[in-house]
Amino acid sequence: MNSDDLGLFGPDSVTWKVHAEPVLMVAGLRALYLQSLHPRAMAGVAQNSNYRTDAWGRLVRTSEYVATTIFGTTAEAERAGRRIRAVHARMRATDPLTGTPFRVDEPDLLRWVHVTEVESFVGTARRAGVALTGDEVDRYYTEQRRAAALVGLDPDSVPGRAAEVEAYYREVRPQLRMTREAAETALFLTVPPIPWKVSLPVRLGLTLGPPRWAYLGLATTALGLLPAWARRLYGGLGLPTTALSADLGVRTLRLALTAVPRHLLIGPIQVAARERAARHAAG
What we know:
By secondary structure, this protein is mostly helical.
């Protein structure tokens, strides 16, 4: 095996540029708020997940998966994809509106989770002040089709440009609504049980003991970063001032993170990727 394998993306990709940003911690939370608005996707999580009793453990595992697919070697990313496909293949849930049983790994549900996740990542990065051209945003979506393939999606069935993402959202929006499960999940995401010390070794590389008010600020910013139509589903949060406040909040957070030593903000998977890239560049 080539120890200097650069993985699915590599240092010249827009993906590495976007995911080098620690501010994407807000993007992950934004994606969860957005995903919860899909009744079947929400049912799949609620009926199969222990997120209420192991919220932080689930966060760490999700962060590890994302970091591995972005910065791991090709073999590591493919191995992570096989594991998640195997887990999803065993899961079943019941549609809360029709009572119909369904598989959690249905392509429509996997596509929803994928699109909301990658749109949250690149959209949050851009609104936080990361310099990304329109062409780079399109390249990011195209690159992320490789990540979609890892979970079992046909890459050609996944939006690969910003305009295609917008069209996809327009198509899916009639299916979205605020269900009881979505409301309960949103409340949990906004005011979760926060242990005194929360270890986030993959994304942050340090141990934090965030006071509740600090986390609430992150959650409020994540909600404000949602599309206006999604904020309205959460109860009338579609006012333009909400988005403007969120933009200011996420830019301020990104600026604040620049004061933190870089080695504290980069997890071991990304560190290893940078080292491989340096060796590869050195020949």
